[in-house]
Amino acid sequence: MVFIDNITTIVGVTVFVTLAIRLYIRVTQTFAQVEGCTMEGRTILVTGGSDGIGKATVKLLAAKRARVIIACRNVEKGAATRDEIIAATGYSNISVMKLDLSSLQSIRTFVREFKQEEHRLDVLINNAGILAPAKKTITEDGLELTYATNHFGPFLLTNLLLDLLKKTGPGRIINVSSVVYTMGSIDFDNLCAERSYSSYTIYGHTKLANILFTKELSQRLQGTGITVNCLHPGTVRTALLNYRPHLKVISFIFGSLFWKDPEVGAQTSLYLAVSGEVNGVTGQYFDNCRPVVPSAKARDDGVARKLWEVSEKLTGLAQ
Hints:
Helix content is 46%, strand content 12%. It is α/β, with parallel strands linked by helices and 319 residues long. It has a single domain, classed as NAD(P)-binding Rossmann-like Domain (Rossmann fold). Strands 3-2-1-4-5-6-7-8 form an 8-stranded mixed β-sheet, sandwiched between helices. β1, α2 and β2 form a beta-alpha-beta unit. α4 runs parallel beside α5. 43% of the residues are buried. Belongs to the short-chain dehydrogenases/reductases (SDR) family. GO terms for molecular function: oxidoreductase activity. Pfam families: adh_short (PF00106). This is Retinol dehydrogenase 14. InterPro entries: NAD(P)-bd_dom_sf, SDR_fam.
């Protein structure tokens, strides 16, 4: 009887704590205050727009009547996402283009075709990203796959699109980072996993790189009318763990109970893309639609500058 009472108590406490956490998450969720804002006539590019936060971002932007381009590796999946959003919103000004951010050639091909088809770019949302695979994977360009997809690819893509952004101007660049950056560091002797590889830490390294890239780029774009900011979307139920199948069970359990829906995770991206409150705001890190000060390692000018220079060389931008 005592055993049953103990089990009942444990179950009761567990249920209470779970409900309390879920209530806290719900009441602290922030939604972008962009009612009345329209993006009609504006062109927005969303990388990784076929799934997860990116898909939710595309849908929210379509509701604001922006022309949205979904850039993704799997164009069939992207087309299915486009068709689903059109059916849900009745808005059809959405296109899909192939882009593999782990391939420098794919990025250059994409930019060439994008500039041939599009005559303006108002907002670039670097949303795509992957969690590190269990085993080290080196791309055709000699880059580690996670770093290539999460940092080097967006670095090259952004730089190759700057002329169109400036021509269209004023414009916005939005980089989706993560609070996981706090577990990251920048080791310039191991950016391509030359010495060691840890699938559990390299994602954090790339998210720190996103913030440092944002910081350096914002300084280089001063006076151009182009702003650049980054954000933490929160812990969101997405397909990010597809690269780590054994974590899917954890994702299912905790995701169902505690993690944000993609639409909630997309709110800060929507806010930074649409809101007039951030006109002229640049070089900032946002969480829940509010600017927050990142840790000292994410504000290191010297590391940010060196990372830029190294990235130029590794992506061929400096040639």
